[in-house]
């Protein structure tokens, strides 16, 4: 027998051994019991009174291990009316579950009942003894345990001998082996202190170390207790709640104004839901409910008690309200009462189970309408005679959850069927109402929200409750589930016919589960307020869909699916998939994605119709939405300014994108469907990054690695990419460069016509810089030519378009595009000359010296030194180099320009030196230029038609004379500027500077005289700087 099977067998035997089926201890744990050696007392006490109550004691020996010695523990267990009411063990167990020693002793009693001798209560045995026997008994007992009981024995002896003692005022004496009185309360043993300590510990860990999982396990234990109708369930929940309310983080969060963490918030939700189950116990006593109500109100009135929706108040209707709801928002919503996580449980205390119609519904599968209905009974049954339950839907579902939780699964199932029949009738009536309003609503293009309270994301989880109730009735036995788990694709559920007293409907609980899930998910509902409430809607929707995906869609379920989808499409303002919806209704993208995938193999037309309808996201549209997707237009994306904010908008947009991607994938190869999906995307998706993702997805699907490309889907990808380019052209987007490169790749894959098209319409797609540096450059690259296998006319056509683009971009943005334009036009003389002229025309206006120097160097590299000189001269006119900018980045360009002029000849050098003198005021740079010009003869570039004299140039003659004078003047001015605010630590550096200045002075014929006069002048002007002037005298005399 396997361990799991052995454990289950032991539990059932233990229950039977106690004499009452269905009663078992909470937290029953067998783990480790098989390793224990049971050594019972020679005569263990076991007192029975009509097999109702008894006491069991024994000694449990735990064998030695490699690290631990043998241990012996004394264990005592008290039973009362099929319940373990108390346990004690010498191991000092600190857990809410029974220790292995208690379990071992219990198993011993179950498996070997004959070896545990049954005895009368000790009081009966004592009664049979005479005086000598009683004295001997007491003395032997004291001797055996004298260190433990002697003080107590002496105390009792003194009290018995005293006639006025309290002990002598009571007749008889207590007997622990006789059990409790028949009037005493009896319940399973629960170590309340341990429960408090465990919960406190888990809360202090703040969701770390698996504490959230442990707390959820405790909640599951409460549900198990409720299902077994164990009175400890409410006790344990009370203990847990007290610790939750004492959590110090609540005060901290409230003071800081921050929200409760999501994990903690989910635990609070489960706590509130459990209390609703507890107070809705159909068989609880009135005094119990009153006690719970007082406690819940006390907790709810505390300042730190979390609110139901996490952040704001709530305008949802009271739990006891009727099914019919107002069609508009409450005018006094700002004055709505404070709703805490316990509010629904408090409201649940006002509910009762005494309604005769309700009692008949849950007590029989065959309750149908009588042949003759009295006045008012028509509201209790549908046309087929099946009972209805007209109550606020979440409240009715809370009743179902309470029945399930308290161990009444059949009753819960019957009430679930009545609720679904009611929802069906409501759906039919809503369709009739919409037929009369359809024309007006379609003309108006908008509607009001008819459901202020959504069922998905609701605190009571009504749809999830109904779905679980129905599917639990259809779940296969555990043995079959184990076999199916080894065979992927097999369903875990089977069809179970609905038990009904009317004619055979042919329905199953499984088809009802699918139907109610679709009805609830398709409900048009307003987006709730607050981040947590909105996030809960998304999370609950995903949970329900995950459960739906566990259903294998056989013909019966497919029929249910098709029928409900058609009803949702025709449902008008009552359906989130109707033709007209409110601007702020919850989007249906996630739901529609599931429906599309489920319907596609069975009814493709219906699948696409539904998914296309669901693509809308009216909260982002500037005009009223409509159901028509045949005329695409792009609406400006706006952030909703109305309170409340849509905190989950990013998630909703991503789900919209997922739906579109699913349709694109499915429509591959179908031109008509692809075009329709494309139009829906262009109309409804307002995020450029999401459209770009769709374009990438479509491109990936259209170009599989192992087969030919799908041209139709490639064109869709290209069109989406073009839309992204238009959307992001005038906005900042950090992925813009990636988008541009991807578009060129996509257009290349489509073909030469696509490339020509984007080149010709570049101005509506790209900036001039992008068009020249990325688009045209990539199109004209060697890799592109090879990839497309172009012939000569096609290459020429592309080149011509690229050159035209380059010239247009250069005209529009010469600063950034001129160089790229020149590069692209190199092979066409006319185009190149045009681009060069554009640069010349723009040089005097908008271009910087850096841009001009860059283009000038490019010209020299391409073999146009005279044009390079002209551009360098133009660049010099924009430059201004101050006396102290001896590390300016433009210095290399200035030196290059002077070297270029010098190499071209004396005339070019004479032309640029005045520009240098005007623009450069840094003495060291000027002296460097002067020295370079005197080292070699000008005209070494060897320009054809030019004559080179081969002589070095003199600094006493033009043009170098002007440069020398400017350099000397710069040294003089720089010297005075530096001396104005010089510090002693810079004296040495200054002396070296003067040494370089002397070298320049000496280039002049009377340079030594000028320098001497200059030094004398410094001594007179700055004689106050004695130490510095001393250094000057030492170096220069």
UniProtKB/TrEMBL annotation:
For this chain, one GO molecular function annotation is: zinc ion binding
Q: What is this protein called?
A: Zinc finger SWIM-type containing 5
- The answer to whether keyword Kinase applies is no
Q: Does the keyword Ribonucleoprotein apply?
A: no
GO annotations of cellular component type: Cul2-RING ubiquitin ligase complex
Annotated InterPro entries: Znf_SWIM (IPR007527), ZSWIM4-8_C (IPR048370)
Residue intervals of the SWIM-type domain: 73-110
Cited Pfam families: ZSWIM4-8_C (PF21055)
Matches recorded under PANTHER family? ZINC FINGER SWIM DOMAIN CONTAINING PROTEIN 4, 5, 6, ZINC FINGER SWIM DOMAIN-CONTAINING PROTEIN 5
Sorted alphabetically, the keyword list is: Metal-binding, Zinc, Zinc-finger
Task: Give the highest taxon in the source lineage.
Answer: Eukaryota
